[in-house]
Amino acid sequence: MNNISVQDVKGVGPKLAETLKKIGIHTVEDLLYYFPNRYDHYEQKPLHELIHNEKVTIVGEVIHDPTVQFYQRKKSRMIVSLRVDGAVVKGVLFNRAFAKKHFIPGEEVSVNGKWDQHRLQITIDNYKMGTIDGSSPITPIYSSKGDIKNAQFQKITENALSSFRDQVTEIIPTSYLVNYKLPNRTDALENIHFPSSFQQLKHAKRRFIYEELLLFQIKMQLYRKRNREATEGNAKEISMKKVKQLMEQFPFTLTSAQKKSLAEIFKDLQSPYRMNRLLQGDVGSGKTAVAVISLYGVVTTGEQVALMVPTEILAEQHEESLKQLLPVDVKVQRLTGSIKGKKRKETLTEIENGSCDVVIGTHALIQDDVNFHNLGYVIIDEQHRFGVQQRNTLREKGILADILFMTATPIPRTLSITAFGDMDVSKIDEMPKGRKPVETYWVKHNMFERTVNFVYKEIKKGSQAYIICPLIEESDKLDIQNALDLYHQLQEILKGKATVGLMHGRLTTEEKEQVMNDFAENKVQILVSTTVVEVGVNVPNATVMMIQDADRFGLSQLHQLRGRVGRSDKQSYCILVADPKGETGKERMRIMTETTDGFVLAERDLELRGPGDIFGVKQSGLPEFKLADLVHDYRALETARDDAVDIVENELWKASEFQALIKYLLSKIEIDQQLLN
Ligand code: ADP
Ligand code: MG
């Protein structure tokens, strides 16, 4: 049916076929997979059985002519009084003044819409003259974007189903259908368009949700397989003896989660397959240590390593920690925008002739005139800041090195198996020993003095503090506290008691470095800053994170900011200063005070804002599904994912049972046939 033109359907002439094409319907299959976007259903119930705020159907007698009020320019509101079960019910109909003539006093009418139990009022979506007996059929409503009448849509879909019913072939293996109690494809198509009960409709939907998720997940698994294709000479001969020696000299012992992730990474590095791995670990979980040890392993083979970070501050910080942690004979260089002229030239030469082992830089590292001598391993820190695009850039540049992506964005499981389904994932799900959860408080602006006193008390104990402001310049409109003002204010208040530093995006790189160094060395005790410190910054001696106008930040950003403290065994504090006006703002503050678990936060964020906003759909590369909902259908998603792994990894698809599925998939996506050999 995917090679039968929609024009072969009874009732579809050339003109209608043109219109259908515009909404992406070319074949009979396209038509049958154009599902209704809602269903109308009239089922009458006595008034006392109706549920507040639900969709209901009411049959009543029109008492008198409806009244219509017009407002704004084109809007109208019609009110009709109905006598129902001896009571008077008010029906409200918006912007359909023309319907007035249909409501004739003394006549019976059936209306359908949202019920307000307290006002005995119904907001009418649909109406029908006359009564209905008990219940009417469930009517599919198609969104045809205005060009095709619903009745016509129904008709041609019905025709397509009756003429081509025998040509609908099953694509999901029977064993799966039986296992999950899913209807076959023909029945499901029939029931999603013309369900005789809501039970049947639900079954049909379940099948298509599974079908679309399974197809998607198989595709991701195939991509994953492609990404891992064997590259000659890529099996690295790492000196594990040297790696062990390095680990013994580390200032701390690794957590078992760090060790496990390292083992997974080393296994990939030593295999001939190209690594394409995501290292996920909450802020402060110690991803840098994992990166350093694994990159040292690659250095022992004589190959080069590139470490990419999103900001210059982070590049500099990583350079410092690498120099501290790695043996002195490992040559580390930094290549960022601030490195210019002669120094830049020298560095480029060293990268090119191979005398430099590790290069740290921003994304310019893979884009500019940088030629590596023998690049064997790329690590991308805070990968969410780079976006999916960079993930592909590396591949397009023909860089066949092993790649490790590191991220602290706690991605809910369902999103991560969707957005990162084509990658292997390692998780650091444990904090270094002795860490205390950051105590979080939400205070109002009028408690400013008390908060500053609290900060000062911490400083007297030898600790340091960050104070974050959302913007650097006063904006009347947003009424956001001004970082500069605050900086001057604090300097005044704490004169002779503490040194205050100022950091924001408009400083030059040198100035930023200077401020960051002063803070790292405790020459500055309080750092007033915009969100430039958000990602990755590591100053373990800081124990207070105070965030001004905290309600202006999203949950994941607040979590990132809070992650700047709690990096030692000292008790740390996060103070959210906010007078949120809206309910979501308040809810966000509450959630922050209730949990420090990034994954819990991400789940809550997902509930509050939906998957679209969590880190920007475009960035995360989340696909759009027809029926499946990533929040509600997470179980189907996990099942589909497990099945897809099974089908691809264990080569189940070779069995005859799977031929229809694979053939169908190949007709839908572009993928090298070779993957299936
Ligand atoms: P993130 O995962 O957020 O990048 P970092 O790698 O910056 O975290 O580590 C946070 C802090 O924890 C650093 O000061 C680091 O030295 C320290 N750290 C990392 N691993 C351990 C460990 N196993 N034991 C104790 N401290 C550790
Ligand atoms: Mg980090």
UniProtKB/TrEMBL annotation:
GO terms for biological process: DNA recombination; DNA repair. SMART domains: DEXDc (SM00487), HELICc (SM00490). SUPFAM superfamilies: Nucleic acid-binding proteins, P-loop containing nucleoside triphosphate hydrolases. Residues 451-607 form the Helicase C-terminal domain. Its EC number is 5.6.2.4. Keywords: ATP-binding, DNA damage, DNA recombination, DNA repair, DNA-binding, Helicase, Hydrolase, Isomerase, Nucleotide-binding. It is an enzyme of class 5 (isomerase). It comes from the Bacteria. Plays a critical role in recombination and DNA repair. Helps process Holliday junction intermediates to mature products by catalyzing branch migration. Has replication fork regression activity, unwinds stalled or blocked replication forks to make a HJ that can be resolved. Has a DNA unwinding activity characteristic of a DNA helicase with 3'-5' polarity. PANTHER family: ATP-DEPENDENT DNA HELICASE HOMOLOG RECG, CHLOROPLASTIC. This is ATP-dependent DNA helicase RecG. It comes from Gracilibacillus salitolerans.
